[in-house]
Design a protein that fits this description.
2 strands; two-stranded antiparallel sheet
Length: 95
Amino acid sequence: MRPSISPDALELLAAKQNVRVLACGQWGARIPALDFKRVNGGLLVQDRDLGMVTESDLKVVTERQPTAKELSDALFCWKVAKFVKSNAIVMRAII
């Protein structure tokens, strides 16, 4: 399956037995902002979550500022939770 097939390639493939060649034409532009999932009885369409949280994205609103280690641990947990299936709670043990 290809957008197009050159005449030379078509001639070469035509000589082979049991080969099917499909020219589908140019595909339309993908919509990278949407994620499609089949669900029981329908289709779920939602925004894709392609971003990652960085320290510069965070705003501390408490009087006590977190340490660099606490921020690093929180960002690590955030990344882990992003890739866990279903609703996630990630706990980081202080060792």
